[in-house]
Automatic annotation (TrEMBL):
Source taxonomy: Bacteria, Bacillati, Actinomycetota, Actinomycetes, Micromonosporales
A Pfam family that the UniProt record links to this protein: DUF4153
Organism of provenance: Catellatospora coxensis
Signal peptide: none
Membrane spanning residue stretches: 114-135, 142-159, 171-188, 195-214, 220-239, 259-280, 300-322, 343-366, 386-406, 418-444, 456-476, 483-502
Bias type Low complexity, positions: 16-33, 43-71
Keyword field contains ATP-binding: no
InterPro entries: DUF4153
Region (Disordered): 1-71, 90-109
Keywords: Membrane, Transmembrane, Transmembrane helix
Tagged with keyword Transmembrane helix: yes
Protein's name according to its UniProt entry: DUF4173 domain-containing protein
Length: 597
C-alpha cells in the first residue's frame, strides 16, 4: 500500500506499467484532495471534524477529475504548470465562512431601478447653477432662501413620480418638514446671525432629508435625517448611468431633448464669454451692469465647485424621493429585553443620586449672591459657571439612559409597566429640577456679569432639553410614543427659529448697555449689525468704539443682490447719517474712562 499523507506524494503501484502513471508534478488536483481526505480519516477520532456534505457542483467536479487526469498535457503546459497547493490535515476541521449578510444599502436602499435620465440632469443643473449664482456662502443672505426654493421646486416636481406616503397625515408631515427647512434658510434673510445660521443650515438639511425619506422611530429619524447627505455621493454613479443610456439612445430620440440641451449649452456659453468680455472692457462691463459676474480664476473655481455641490445635493434629494430607503426594519421594537432587576437597580441608584443632588441644590435656588458665597465657599462667578457644563452633560446622558431603558425594558405584565413608569417618572421629574438648576446658574451669571452669545445659546439649549423632558413625561404614560422623535427634532428647529425671531444680538447689546458701568468693548465690537440700534444709545466715545467693527465690515464688504440681509440694510441706513469718531481715538478714550471707574 502506498503512503498517502500530504507530505509524501503518492507512489505508483509496482504491478502497473510505468508509463501509465503520471509524474508527481502533473498529479491531478483530485488526487491531492483524495490524499488530504485519506489523511484526515486516518487521524485519531478526537482530532477530526466532519464537514458538511459537499455541494453538487463539487461532486460533479470530482467525478470529472479522472477524465481530466487521463488526458496528457502538452509539453509547454507541463513546463509552466503550478503544482497544486497542499494543506495540513488539520485544516479539514474548519468549514468555509458563510458569506457576509447584505448591507443596509443593498438590502434596504438600492435606489431607483432606472438611471438618472435627462430630467434628473436638468434638475441637477438647475440646482447647481442656482447655487453658483445666488449662494452667499460666507454670510447669511437672501440667496440661501432662493437656492432652497429652487431645490425644493425641483424635488417637488420629481416627487410626483416617486412612491407616495401611506396616509394623508404622513403626506402632510412630509410637507411640514419641507416648510420647516425653507423657514430655517429664511433666517439668513432677516438676521445677520452667523453663529446661529450655521445650525439653521444644518437643520434645514436634516429637515429636507426627513421630508423625502421619512421616519418615525429614533433610529429611523436619524437615518432619514442623513439620507440626502448619503445620497449626495450615490447620485454620482446614478447620473453617470443615465448619461451613458441617453448617449446610446440620443440618435433615436426626438427633438425636445436636443433643444433643451442646446439651450443649456447656449446659456452657459453666453455667461462665460460675456463675463470674459466684461472683464476685458470697461465700456462693455458698464453696458451689462451687474448682470454678469466678474470672471477670474477664483470666480471660475468657485462657480464650478458650487455648481457641483448644488447639483449633487439636488440630485441626491431626487434620488431619495424617487426610491427612499426602507426604514421598516428600524421601526420594529427591539427583540432584546432586560428584566426587572436590570431595570430596577440602575434606575433606582440614579433616582437616589439625583434626589440627593436636588436636595442640596434647593438651598441655593432662592438665595442671593451673599448667601451663595457664604454657604458654598465659592465666589459667585465660580458657583454659576462651575457646574453648568457638567449639568448639561448630565442632561444629555439622562436622555440617552431613558431612551435605552424605554426600548429594552420588559413591559409584558402590569407590574413591569408600573415599575417602569415609577422609576422613569421619578428620574424625569428630578432631571427637570437639574435642568432648572443649570438654567438658574446661567441666568444668575449673565445678569451679574453681562450677556454673551455663547451664554445665551447654551442656556437656550438647556431650556430646550427641559422641554424634551416634558415631552418624555407626556409620552411616558403609554411607554410608547411614535411622535416623540419627530417632535424632538421639530422642537430644536423651532428653537432656532425663535432665536432668529428674537434678535438675540440686539437683546445682548441692550442688556449690556442697560448695565452701563464698565463695558467690555472688545466683546461689544464683535457683535453684528443686528446690535446697532442698541449700541447707538451709548454716549460718546463709547458709541463710536462699539460700532467701529460694524462700520468697517459694512464698508469693506458691501452686499450684492444675492447676499442682501435685512439686519445689515437697516444698520447701514442708521449709520449713514450718524457722526462717528475715529476708531482708535474713541477706543483709547473709552479704555481710559473704563480704567478710571
Amino acid at each position: 500500500m502506498s503512503d498517502t499523507s500530504p507530505d509524501t506524494p503518492a507512489q505508483p503501484d509496482g504491478s502497473s506499467p510505468p508509463e501509465s502513471s503520471p509524474p508527481a508534478a502533473e498529479a491531478s488536483p483530485s488526487a491531492s484532495s483524495d490524499a488530504q481526505v485519506t489523511a484526515t480519516e486516518q487521524a485519531p477520532a478526537a482530532e477530526t471534524w466532519t464537514a458538511p456534505d459537499p455541494a453538487p457542483a463539487t461532486a460533479a467536479e470530482s467525478t470529472a477529475a479522472p477524465a481530466k487526469a487521463a488526458t496528457p498535457a502538452p509539453a509547454a503546459a507541463a513546463a509552466t504548470a503550478v503544482p497544486p497547493q497542499t494543506y495540513p490535515a488539520e485544516m479539514a476541521r474548519f468549514s468555509p465562512l458563510p458569506p457576509p449578510p447584505p448591507g443596509f444599502l443593498q438590502a434596504r436602499w438600492q435606489g431607483p431601478d432606472y438611471a438618472g435620465g435627462p430630467a434628473a440632469w436638468i434638475a441637477a443643473l438647475v440646482g447647481g447653477l442656482a447655487t453658483a449664482i445666488a449662494l452667499p456662502l460666507s454670510r447669511p443672505g437672501i440667496g440661501w432662501l432662493l437656492v432652497g426654493l429652487v431645490m425644493t421646486g425641483a424635488v417637488w416636481h420629481a416627487a410626483r413620480f416617486g412612491p407616495k406616503p401611506d396616509t394623508a397625515l404622513e403626506r402632510w408631515i412630509r410637507v411640514g418638514w419641507a416648510v420647516l427647512a425653507v423657514a430655517l434658510l429664511s433666517v439668513g434673510t432677516f438676521r445677520n446671525l452667523g453663529w446661529i445660521f450655521v445650525f439653521c443650515v444644518l437643520g434645514a438639511i436634516a429637515c429636507g432629508s426627513l421630508a423625502v425619506a421619512g421616519g418615525h422611530s429614533v433610529r429611523a429619524v436619524v437615518v432619514g435625517a442623513m439620507a440626502v447627505p448619503l445620497a449626495f455621493f450615490r447620485a454620482i454613479p446614478w447620473l453617470g448611468r443615465g448619461a451613458r443610456a441617453w448617449q446610446q439612445t440620443r440618435e433615436r430620440s426626438g427633438t425636445a431633448g436636443r433643444v433643451v440641451l442646446s439651450l443649456i449649452v447656449t446659456f452657459v456659453l453666453l455667461v462665460v464669454f460675456g463675463a470674459l468680455f466684461a472683464s476685458a472692457d470697461a465700456a462693455f462691463a458698464t453696458l451689462l451692469g451687474d448682470i454678469l459676474p466678474e470672471l477670474n480664476a477664483r470666480a471660475i473655481f468657485r462657480g464650478v465647485l458650487y455648481t457641483l455641490i448644488g447639483g449633487l445635493i439636488t440630485a441626491g434629494a431626487i434620488f431619495t424621493v424617487l426610491a427612499p430607503p426602507d426604514l421598516s426594519g428600524l421601526e420594529r421594537p427591539a427583540a432584546r429585553r432586560i428584566g426587572r432587576i436590570e431595570v430596577a437597580l440602575p434606575l433606582g441608584g440614579l433616582v437616589l443620586l439625583f434626589g440627593a443632588f436636588v436636595v442640596v441644590q434647593l438651598r441655593f435656588f432662592f438665595g442671593d449672591k451673599a448667601y451663595i458665597q457664604k454657604t458654598s465657599g465659592l465666589t459667585f462667578s465660580e458657583y454659576a459657571v462651575q457646574g453648568f457644563n457638567q449639568l448639561l452633560v448630565v442632561t444629555l446622558l439622562t436622555l440617552i439612559v431613558i431612551g435605552l431603558v424605554s426600548r429594552w425594558a420588559v413591559k409584558e405584565t402590569r407590574q413591569d409597566r408600573i415599575l417602569l413608569r415609577t422609576l422613569l417618572g421619578a428620574l424625569v421629574l428630578l432631571s427637570m429640577v437639574i435642568v432648572g438648576s443649570a438654567a438658574w446658574r446661567m441666568w444668575l451669571y449673565q445678569n451679574t456679569y453681562g450677556w454673551t452669545r455663547e451664554r445665551l445659546f447654551f442656556g437656550s439649549v438647556e431650556l430646550y432639553l427641559g422641554g424634551v423632558f416634558i415631552l418624555i413625561a407626556l409620552a411616558g404614560w403609554k411607554l410608547r410614543a411614535a411622535w416623540f422623535p419627530r417632535a424632538a427634532v421639530a422642537g430644536f428647529a423651532g428653537l432656532l427659529l425663535f432665536l432668529g425671531a428674537a434678535n438675540p444680538e440686539h437683546f445682548i447689546a441692550e442688556q449690556n448697555v442697560e448695565r452701563f458701568q464698565k463695558l467690555d468693548f472688545w466683546y461689544l465690537r464683535a457683535l453684528g449689525p443686528d446690535a446697532v440700534p442698541a449700541l447707538a444709545e451709548l454716549p460718546e466715545p463709547y458709541r463710536s468704539c462699539a460700532l467701529s467693527w460694524v462700520i468697517r465690515d459694512l464698508k469693506a464688504d458691501p452686499d450684492q443682490w444675492y447676499s442682501w440681509n435685512l439686519g445689515r440694510a437697516q444698520a447701514a441706513e442708521q449709520l449713514k447719517d450718524m457722526y462717528i469718531l475715529p476708531a482708535r481715538q474713541s477706543c483709547n478714550e473709552s479704555d481710559r474712562l473704563n480704567a478710571s471707574k
